[in-house]
Amino acid sequence: MSMWLEKRQKILILSAIPHGLRLDREIREIEEAIHRAIRRERFEVSISTAVRPQDFRRAIAEKRPQIVHFCGHGMPDGSLLLEDDRGNNKSVQPEGLAALFKLHADYVNCVLINACYSVKTAEVISEHIDYAIGMNQAIGDSAAIAFAQGFYDALGYESSVREDVFQRAFNEGLVAIQLENISEGQIPVLKKKGLIQSAEKSIPRLQQTTNIPNSIINDSHRIVSVIITEKLDKLIPNKRQFYRWLISTLVLLLVASPMLIYRIPIAKKLRLVQPNCFESAAKEKKLVVAIAKLKGIDSTLSRDYPFLSNEIDEQLTKHIIPNIRDRITICSVKDSVSSEMEASNLGNKLGAAIIIWGRQTQVEFEIQVTTLKIKVAYLTSLSIPMQDAQNFEKIKDFPNIIALMATHALSEIYNIQEKQNLVARKILEYSIKLTEPPNTDLENKYVRIKLGIANSRLGILYSPMEEGDCPKYRQDCIYAAKFFQISRKLDSRNEQAFIEEGNIQLELGNSREAEQAYSDLIRINPESEEGLIARINRADTYLAQDNFQKAIADLKFACQRKPNDYECLNYLGKAQIQAGDIQAAKKTYQQVKNTLGKDEAAKKEIISTLNNLARARPQLQQEIQSIISLL
After folding, report:
1. Are 63 and 19 in contact (CB under 8 A)?
2. Which segments cross the bilayer (predicted)?
3. What span, in angstroms and rounded, lies between the C-alpha atoms of 163 and 148?
């Protein structure tokens, strides 16, 4: 069964209607499990969110995945909740999904439906797909995440040829639930399609039907050998003459080889020698950054940067923090690549951790930084229109920018793969300082954009892993807020940086600073998704100041644009309760009830938040209980 791992496996994650579910965390855990996997280079993860039925269908057809992972809502009748074109809930019956997967049975190996009551869907899908996993009842967020974590951890393990990979991964998922002391270890169910018999089972049947003796079946390789030998004897009747010819040819090649080597062009000679850099790094167990030939780009920039690859090498050497320089080797590659797949193949062949490469079209050129063992989502590409490439002021800082991109990839390796967060921070912080003025020009938009993203990533590295931990790691949070603020000031399109800064400031107890960060984003882009999130979060700062009317105004604005978001409505209802407007709160929670439908897990979550509010505001306990009774 492990032969499926010999080819690169595509995992398609489809998440729909994340109200009340921690789907972002589930997706993050899946990606981290793949990053930790022993054979992680064999996996490629694609994600599609807010899925409509047509998105679901198109994503499978376009990505052609081997594993499909759905995380979202399941209903007691076995249907899954997707969305219609207006963002409203739309149920999809098991039979419809089975018909869909029947069309893709030639490449989909496993379907995992991490949603409540999804066993019926898994059962009908398993009529066409070898493995389908569903849940036989409601499953909580923690159990769903634990199962996904265990399942994908196991897919990355080394496995024997005879091992049933998906059965092993399923068992690991169950164990992960049990080890977390979650009482939902019997909820996931694995359904298997009737598989073709293995060779070991087929041979006895072959013997029965053909009457071939055991000795012949067991010695089949000898039969092939005899046939080949007989064919050679017929083709070469005079064996002595053949061997003389073979020896003469080998001697001629040995004599001619110096002349052949002498005629090889210098560039090809260098290509023959180049692997020594990689071999030396491998022997010394160093991490390798490979710089491939920048296809077409060197000639385009020959006037300003006749040796751009060398400039990148020089700047990258400077950007690597001194205390890890002896662990890093930069190797040049005389080959060029023109796609992500080619870069990955070349990098893996050479044993590199990172490969810098480039390509050029008629309208632009692009320099990419590809990380081989982990997935890096930011600072991976620098695209330049050809008209900018002719302007030295626009391109003079390119070696610095590319060095920043590469050191960001290094920091991600240390953070994710090596689990050395402190080293990762220092790597990126050191490189950022070398990319700031006077080393670069902030009037250059490419410098500003990349520095903005880099500061945001540094803020993430300084942020605590768990929400609410800023009092415990106060100094780290102060640094994180500073870097998020720098990021948004460098490039106001970094909308997430506004939200992250506001969230950190709120945790630090700086409600005024948090309010300012949220307000700045709302002023720039009030209707965007991030703008609405900022408005909901700003309401928290107003509630912390007992400014209930401003909080309610913000929440009403957001909820009007997100009418089916019960979390937004829950925030609004709680603000109305705290303002003493119980009648308005009851109307809001009636809307919440209509939105929830039969989602018992979400209802429990809302009731829990209301009980927490009752404990914090005992004077409102009676009113809160009357609202809970409505749900």
Report:
1. no
2. 242-262
3. 20
